[in-house]
What we know:
mainly alpha, 3 helices, 0% strand, DUF6771
Amino acid sequence: MERIDTSAVAHAILDAPGWARVGITAPNSCLREDAALELARVIADAVGAPDRAPSPEQSTLPL
């Protein structure tokens, strides 16, 4: 069994839509369930996705 990177999960939660992060504390159970499903989807996508290095063809934007 593969160990899940907690740092990747934390970043996925912070990158999740704001409504989902706030929605898990909502008094409405339907909204809490929708928010939890969205957070789970975001986390699963982030953890399951391979780390991709930026393409050499992608230009960088100056700050």
